[in-house]
């Protein structure tokens, strides 16, 4: 009996081993290594010297770091609500149109599979003044007088709109699919009953569809907040973090500190702050989900 | 009301397609054409000349191949490893299983971006920076795939497993002949989503590779774009060549992709 138990352990371990090796080596070990690095002056070439809590003290005094945290937060605040409204609207369009549903689904989803680099450059060319698509379109329909240009990428507020719009176009597809499948899970008899009771389309939407989508909305909101907080490349390519670092995201700042200013130790320290923020957000999501289940019981 | 709804739907669809159509149309223009109004982008003459030029003069096709090769290897290894681990977690009795489950679950809370700096140092210590191994191995551990596949394996009835065992079948045979075939839709969705994720992965290749022979598309594209700023034809050709493989894949596997997203949303 003892022997078979040992055999079962060994067998399970063999099946777990390939995953465990890469997981421990490339996720758990770096996690611990990062703690060590955050207490050192550490360059791209080598470990220089132990500096104690110096990196942490610097971080709390580093205005550029907190500004970058704020910029990522702005991006979250800008994209999360718009993302949800847009995803629901698109799902309604696809859901109600039974004949062309597949076509609409493909059209709304296809940008999501594009590479972030492709999307970023498309965004850059769309919002470019003089030669960009959007200003040319505005000239064509005479919404913008000839000879006048909107400088989308060099005014902070407009730059946020440009980056937010291109991100919505790129990533709304995933959330759209989640909403669409949630809408299709709502049984038809509920709508049928509402129709017999004389409910209008908008009443049906506000009082039946939307409340039934509530659980998926909560999930999407949290996932979206976490994903948006990790924004990097589309801002970096479209605005370069400018004007005057006004749109620089926290990941961009960590990368610049580590790889451009040759300070991996401090970059690791800031990564920990980022990790801590994301952990709090995840915990919040977990707590909200559990509360939701508790209510259902 | 019905017409209003149809018009809004149509406008939404057009807005979503326009950037892609623009990309395709500009990519088949000739370089140096005078663009006075928006309409000039869409009118002939068309030519595929710049495609040949980009393919000949840049490393773009090399990067398409790198992206493809790296993504295929990552996809197969990730899903095989995750399926094996998920199978052990679902159907095999062993000691410290609860502890193991928490270790894997903890991985869901660790965002890749937050360990990327020490990961760079780890890869450097292992001397795998600037190699294919360096692009591939650090990207293989996917705790979320383990958890999702485990939940699908949980749904496979134990009677089936016992009947194979009575026939003298080993654990590996149960895994290959029962578990994988019975959960094929989930495994397929996992494969295709991992592939797309890897094809589009940017941050790690960007940090771990400096040799342009090893570039993948997302990091290669920006280095090319910096050379052309006035004319959009070459950039759009680059964008189109980079996007076509994944768009074709999407058209073939749309059903699995959509299914995979719905599944991950439920678990998420």
TrEMBL record, chain A:
It comes from Cohnella pontilimi. GO terms for cellular component: plasma membrane. This is Sugar ABC transporter permease. CDD domains: TM_PBP2. Belongs to the binding-protein-dependent transport system permease family. Residues 69-285 form the ABC transmembrane type-1 domain. It is found in: Cell membrane. It holds the Pfam family BPD_transp_1. The chain crosses the membrane at residues 12-32, 69-94, 106-127, 158-180, 222-244, 264-287. PANTHER family: ABC TRANSPORTER PERMEASE PROTEIN (PTHR30193), INNER MEMBRANE ABC TRANSPORTER PERMEASE PROTEIN YCJO (PTHR30193:SF37). Gene3D superfamilies: MetI-like. It is a multi-pass membrane protein. Keywords: Cell membrane, Membrane, Transmembrane, Transmembrane helix, Transport. GO terms for biological process: transmembrane transport. Its main location: membrane. The keyword Methyltransferase does not apply.
TrEMBL record, chain B:
It comes from the Bacteria. It is found in: Cell membrane. InterPro entries: MetI-like (IPR000515), MetI-like_sf (IPR035906). The chain crosses the membrane at residues 7-28, 63-87, 99-120, 132-153, 174-199, 232-253. Keywords: Cell membrane, Membrane, Transmembrane, Transmembrane helix, Transport. Residues 64-253 form the ABC transmembrane type-1 domain. The keyword Magnesium does not apply. CDD domains: TM_PBP2. GO terms for biological process: transmembrane transport. It is a multi-pass membrane protein. GO terms for cellular component: plasma membrane. Pfam families: BPD_transp_1 (PF00528). Belongs to the binding-protein-dependent transport system permease family. This is Carbohydrate ABC transporter permease.
């Amino acid at each position: 009996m003892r022997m078979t138990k040992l055999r079962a352990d060994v067998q399970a371990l063999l099946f777990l081993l390939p995953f465990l090796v890469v997981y421990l080596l490339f996720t758990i070990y770096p996690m611990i290594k990062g703690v060590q690095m955050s207490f050192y002056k550490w360059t791209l070439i080598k470990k220089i010297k132990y500096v104690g809590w110096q990196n942490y003290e610097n971080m709390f005094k580093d205005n550029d770091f907190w500004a970058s945290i704020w910029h990522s937060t702005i991006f979250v605040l800008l994209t999360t609500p718009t993302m949800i409204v847009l995803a629901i609207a698109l799902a309604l369009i696809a859901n109600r149109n039974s004949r062309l549903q597949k076509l609409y689904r493909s059209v709304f989803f296809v940008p999501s599979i594009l590479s972030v680099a492709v999307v970023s450059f498309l965004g850059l060319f769309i919002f470019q003044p003089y030669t960009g698509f959007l200003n040319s379109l505005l000239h064509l329909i005479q919404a913008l007088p000839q000879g006048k240009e909107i400088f989308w990428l060099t005014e902070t507020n407009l730059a946020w709109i440009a980056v937010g719009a291109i991100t919505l176009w790129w990533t709304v597809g995933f959330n759209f699919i989640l909403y669409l499948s949630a809408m299709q899970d709502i049984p038809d008899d509920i709508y049928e009953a509402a129709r017999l009771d004389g409910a209008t389309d908008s009443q049906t939407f506000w009082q039946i569809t939307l409340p039934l989508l509530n659980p998926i909305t909560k999930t999407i909101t949290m996932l979206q907040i976490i994903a948006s907080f990790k924004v990097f490349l589309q801002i970096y390519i479209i605005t370069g973090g400018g004007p005057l670092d006004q749109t620089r995201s926290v990941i961009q700042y960590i990368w610049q500190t580590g790889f451009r200013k040759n300070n991996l130790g401090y970059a690791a320290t800031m990564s920990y702050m980022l990790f801590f923020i994301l952990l709090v957000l995840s915990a919040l999501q977990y707590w909200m989900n559990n509360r939701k289940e508790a209510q259902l019981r | 009301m019905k017409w209003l709804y149809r018009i809004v739907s149509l406008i939404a669809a057009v807005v979503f397609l326009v950037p892609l159509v623009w990309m395709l149309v500009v990519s088949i223009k000739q370089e140096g054409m005078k663009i006075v109004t928006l309409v000039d982008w869409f009118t002939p003459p068309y030519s595929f000349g710049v495609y040949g030029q980009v393919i000949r003069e840049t490393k773009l096709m090399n990067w398409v191949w790198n992206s493809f090769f790296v993504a295929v290897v990552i996809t197969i290894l990730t899903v095989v490893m995750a399926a094996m681990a998920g199978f052990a977690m679902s159907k095999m009795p062993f000691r410290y299983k609860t502890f193991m489950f928490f270790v894997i679950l903890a991985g869901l809370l660790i965002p890749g971006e937050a360990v990327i700096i020490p990961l760079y140092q780890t890869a450097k210590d292992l001397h795998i920076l600037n190699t294919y191994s360096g692009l591939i191995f650090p990207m293989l551990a996917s705790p979320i795939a383990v958890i999702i596949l485990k939940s699908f394996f949980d749904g496979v009835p134990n009677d089936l497993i016992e009947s194979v065992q009575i026939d003298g079948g080993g654990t590996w045979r149960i895994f290959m002949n029962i578990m994988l075939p019975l959960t094929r839709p989930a495994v397929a969705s996992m494969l295709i989503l991992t592939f797309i994720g890897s094809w589009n992965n940017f941050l790690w290749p960007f940090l771990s590779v400096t040799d342009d022979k090893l570039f993948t598309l997302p990091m290669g594209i920006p280095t090319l774009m910096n050379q052309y700023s006035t004319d959009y034809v070459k950039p759009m050709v680059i964008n189109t060549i980079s996007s076509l493989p994944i768009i074709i894949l999407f058209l073939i596997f749309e059903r699995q992709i959509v299914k995979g997203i719905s599944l991950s949303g439920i678990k998420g």
